[in-house]
Amino acid sequence: MSEDGMMEIERRIKSAEDIAAVKAEMVHIHKMMDMHYRHMNTMLDSQNAIIASQSRQISTLVDTLNQINLTLSEAKGGWKTFMMIGGIGAAIGTGLMSIMQYLKGLRFPS
């Protein structure tokens, strides 16, 4: 076999070795990507579960706030009525005490 033929065979062997090395590296990269993909999917599933739980909690809080708002809107006129009744009661009590103090001062000493 000629020297040119030997060099051609060596070049092809070198190319085949390079291709095999690249193929091995690609297989390794694919394995690493698969591991990373599985890890990311696990993290995303966990985060989705947390988000779903928080969404349910927020929904419950919104319902509670709506009930509180409804209760407060129904009680708007009630507290004003109680304040008016209290004010009238205080005015009557003050008036009675003033009259009693006035009548007590009118007594003559014996």
Record keyword descriptors for this entry.
rod-shaped; mainly alpha
Provide a descriptive summary of the structure in words.
- The protein is an all-alpha fold.
- The chain folds into two domains: 72 residues; 34 residues.
- The chain is built from two helices and no strands.
- The longest helix is centred in the middle third of the chain and has 72 residues.
Compact overview of the structure:
The protein has 110 residues and is mainly α.
What's the arrangement of secondary structure elements?
Layout: H1 3-74, H2 76-105
How many distinct beta strands? 0
Integer count of domains: 2
Strand residue percentage? under 5%
Query: Fraction of residues in helices?
Result: over 70%
Low confidence ranges: none
N-to-C CA distance: 157 Å
User: Structural class, from secondary structure content?
Assistant: mainly alpha
Q: What is the residue-mean pLDDT, rounded to a whole number?
A: 86
How many individual helices?
Answer: 2
Question: Can you tell me the overall shape?
Answer: rod-shaped
The main pleated sheet reads as:
none
Q: What is the C-alpha radius of gyration, as a whole number of Å? A: 46 Å
Order of helices and strands: HH
